[in-house]
Design goal:
Blueprint lengths: L1 H19 L2 H43 L2 H11 L6 H9 L1 H11 L4 H20 L4 H21 L16 H10 L2
Helix pairs in contact: 1-2, 1-7, 2-4, 2-5, 2-6, 2-7, 4-5, 5-6, 7-8
């Protein structure tokens, strides 16, 4: 429950910053929301990558104990794809790789993923290079807020744990429950 509370609180604080207006507040909101997006992707990918590691070991063991023709039949029957350790490390480390992987898994649409990567690039310019495009900042913050709320719905629930509505639910929490279910 602590994991979801952390995410929802960041979303809620971002909403407050956006509503209070101002370049600095939009910048803080945007940074918080980008962090939430990456955390949600990281949590989702974690379970996939653990499975991939297990599948890699399974393939290795099957290849050792089965005759080549039986192994080929087993691979054709079960169609278990393996990323490998190098690809797993890239996915764990790089934002665009996380997005690409979740798009490939069907958790995010290609357009959604492309937008996330572009917004993250904008965040990097703003955060690391102090390049702020004032005319885009509010719109990008609001857009990313909506996208992060949608990610709560789109990504597998196991990544955000079981939820129960709070008596005094925040607007972000109510929006999530209103769309996701009771």
């Amino acid at each position: 429950m602590e994991r979801i509370r952390f995410v929802v609180e960041q979303i809620e604080e971002s909403r407050k910053f956006i509503q209070r207006r101002g370049s600095t507040r939009y910048r803080i909101a945007f940074t918080l929301l980008d962090n939430v997006a990456e955390i949600l992707m990281y949590r989702t990918i974690g379970s996939y990558l653990e499975s991939d590691e297990m599948h890699e070991q399974l393939h290795k063991r099957a290849k050792e104990v089965m005759p080549p023709d039986k192994y080929a039949e087993w691979v054709a029957t079960y169609r278990i794809e393996v990323l490998g350790s190098k690809r797993r490390k890239l996915i764990e480390r790089l934002y665009p790789e996380k997005v690409s992987y979740l798009v490939k898994q069907g958790n995010l649409s290609g357009v959604f993923g492309e937008a996330l990567v572009r917004l993250h690039d904008y965040r990097n310019e703003m955060y690391h290079r102090d390049r702020i495009q004032e005319d885009l900042l509010r719109a990008c913050s609001v857009f990313l807020f909506e996208m992060v709320c949608d990610m709560l719905i789109a990504l597998p629930p196991r990544t955000i744990l079981s939820l129960s509505p709070a008596k005094e639910a925040s607007p972000a929490w109510r929006r999530f429950y209103g769309r996701y279910g009771k």
